[in-house]
Specification:
CATH superfamily of chain A: MetI-like
Shape of chain A: globular
Main location (chain B): membrane
Distance between the termini of chain B: 37 Å
Membrane topology (chain B): Multi-pass membrane protein
CATH topology of chain A: MetI-like fold
Largest sheet of chain A: none
CATH architecture of chain B: Orthogonal Bundle
Organism (chain B): Paenibacillus methanolicus
Protein name (chain B): Putative spermidine/putrescine transport system permease protein
Radius of gyration of chain B: 23 Å
Helix content of chain A: over 70%
Oligomer: heterodimer
Pfam family, one (chain B): BPD_transp_1
CATH architecture of chain A: Orthogonal Bundle
Strand content of chain B: under 5%
CATH superfamily of chain B: MetI-like
Chain lengths: 285, 296
């Protein structure tokens, strides 16, 4: 650490001032304002827990919450399962190839939101490529597939979760040393037994941490679902946005309460991730 | 590894096919004259691209998105890089505050944080909703985690503390040390962060929709509006947008390998650094590529 005199320290602090002001103005104060609003009555005054009660008991809001949780859970689990294989396969390549593969994966990760919803419509919408193929070959079960339903949404969520899961899980594989595999092989363990008893347990903190990140990611997602179904499919993020910027009379207080509920769930998922990465660091991974 | 070469290859191939399939379909659609109920289009055309690139509305939208992106990224770097440097070198104890601030956007996604912003800035002393200025303000908070990770990583790699100490011992002032020694050394990492931030801002939709809406149409808003009317021009927009991401990602990859002003001695020193474990390298890569949730 570089030592600095007291007066010099003050000058140094000046470099921090714009950052502090900026983050306060566009992040901390707005979040505080939202928290405050969530406890105010519909005239923007007083103190009430009514919006939370309504948010956690009104059928439409409960449905939004359970829909969001279900899609987030399902898409995260599937994406982690896929990414476990893909990330491992990527580690088997040379450095240069790995960098390129990771770049491509990451690039696709940026391909989300409105463009992604549109691309899926072309692929699986009512006149989508796959829909037509299925119709031509007479697969009625696929013909009944509806992109604008929960299944369709989950499919798109999985698509944008997979690249993120690969990027997050990939470093963890380097915690598994080649020597351990050799030792296990020498002792007569099969590949299955190596992964079952050594590999997967070593990866577990990273898997749980990645799950937290993906879960939060899916819960907060809005653009993709909105571009695909408008406000029709009932998700918490869609509900919040409709409450504050929809065509109907805006209700900022209820919207704030729902937003606080959403943020609280996301915050726990992210803390889970932090806790898990600390755990895997302590294990010397 | 020799025995296992086959299955990693097929897994990676499957992954790439899966990831590129939607883009490939969009590409085909954007070149198709008409594509209704056949397996493949029967005639191809460039008409849709011609249409969007002669559409004044689209060109204006690009101009707006580029303007917001460039101004936001420039301001973000101006505000964040000195702050990250000062915290890392002179006040390492306070770094936790910045790390916490970097986590905020993930706990409060755009759809959540937009609420307070809408309320605060639609009236009062600073009524800027509906103008690009609120987006420029907000985008700093969105790209902050990526810039923090990238710049902090660069500072760590060059051992900024030791460098500053050495520069000061040789008689350089604080400012000179920062400008002449630190800044040139963290340039590649900072450029990577800048490119990544730009592509995130360019693709941002939720804040643009909720805080500004139709009053200032960005590329994403244009795409959303086109999507509702004609499909094929929208597909041309998607491909143009994807081409831009491709170029930016390629540049990022190139920059990540670039080491400016690397003399022989520095090369040797650097090689010693490269003895770091593979794991550290991998983590650095993921961090540099911004492996954290984006504005979905």
């Amino acid at each position: 650490m570089v030592r600095a005199g007291a007066s010099q320290r003050k000058i140094m602090l000046l470099a921090l001032l714009p950052f502090v002001i900026w983050v306060s103005a566009f992040e901390l104060v707005p979040i505080g304002r939202m928290l405050m609003m969530s406890f105010q009555d519909s005239d923007g005054q007083g103190f009430t827990l009514g919006h939370y009660v309504k948010g956690l008991s009104g059928p439409i809001y409960v449905q939004a919450l359970t829909n969001s949780l279900r899609i987030a859970l399902l898409s995260s689990v599937i994406a982690i399962f896929v990414a476990l294989f893909c990330a491992y396969a990527i580690t088997r390549y040379t450095t240069r190839m790995r960098d390129t593969l990771l770049m491509l994966t990451n690039m696709i990760g940026n391909f989300a939101g409105v463009p992604l919803a549109f691309a899926f419509m072309i692929l699986m919408g009512n006149n989508g490529v796959f829909t037509i193929i299925a119709r031509e070959f007479g697969f009625d079960s696929f013909g009944a597939f509806d992109l604008y339903s929960e299944l369709g949404l989950t499919l798109i969520y999985v698509y944008f979760q997979v690249p993120l899961a690969v990027m997050l899980l990939y470093p963890a594989y380097y915690g598994i040393r080649e020597e351990w595999r050799e030792a296990a092989a020498v002792l007569g363990a099969s590949a299955y037994r190596f992964w079952r008893h050594i590999g997967i347990p070593m990866l577990l903190p990273s898997i749980v941490g990645t799950f937290g990140m993906l879960f939060a990611n899916a819960l907060g997602a809005y653009a993709t679902a909105y571009a695909l179904t408008g406000s029709i499919y009932n998700l918490l993020s869609v509900r919040i946005s409709a409450l504050v910027s929809g065509d109907i009379f805006p209700n900022f207080e209820l919207g704030s309460a729902l937003a606080v509920i959403l943020a609280a769930i996301m915050l726990s998922a992210i803390l889970l991730n932090e806790w898990m990465s600390r755990l895997s660091r302590r294990r010397g991974l | 590894m020799e025995r296992g070469k086959l299955w990693p290859g097929s897994v990676v191939a499957l992954l790439l096919v899966y990831l590129f399939l939607p883009i490939a379909a969009t590409l085909l659609f954007s070149f198709a004259k008409q594509w209704q109920s056949e397996l493949l289009p029967d005639a191809y055309t460039l008409a849709w691209y011609k249409q969007i690139f002669t559409d004044v509305r689209f060109l204006e939208a690009i101009g707006r998105s580029v303007f917001i992106g460039v101004v936001s990224v420039a301001l973000s770097l101006l505000v964040l890089v000195p702050a990250i440097f000062v915290l890392a070198v002179y006040f390492p104890k306070w770094e936790r505050a910045m790390q916490a601030a970097a986590l905020l956007p993930f706990a409060f996604p755009p759809v959540v944080s937009a609420i307070g912003l809408m309320k605060l800035y639609s009236s009062g002393p600073l009524p800027i909703t509906g103008t690009p200025w609120i987006l420029i303000g907000v985008y700093l908070t969105i790209v902050q985690p990526y810039i923090y990770q990238s710049v902090r990583g660069s500072l760590r790699t060059i051992r900024a503390g030791e460098l500053v100490e050495a520069a000061e011992m040789l008689g350089a002032g604080r400012w000179t040390a920062f400008r002449r020694v630190i800044l040139p050394n963290i340039l590649p990492g900072t450029m990577v962060a800048a490119l990544l931030s730009f592509s995130i801002i360019f693709g941002e939709f939720v804040m643009a929709k909720m805080l500004v809406g139709g009053e200032y149409e960005t590329v994403q808003m244009y795409l959303y509006n086109e999507m509702k009317s004609t499909g094929q021009t929208a597909s041309a927009v998607v491909i143009a947008y994807f081409a831009l991401i491709l170029v930016l990602s390629g540049l990022t990859l190139k920059l990540g390998r670039w080491k400016p002003g690397r003399g022989r001695r520095q090369t040797q020193r650097r090689n010693r650094h490269e003895l770091r474990s593979d794991r550290e390298r991998a983590e650095g890569l993921s961090a540099a590529a911004g492996a954290e949730p984006g504005p979905y």
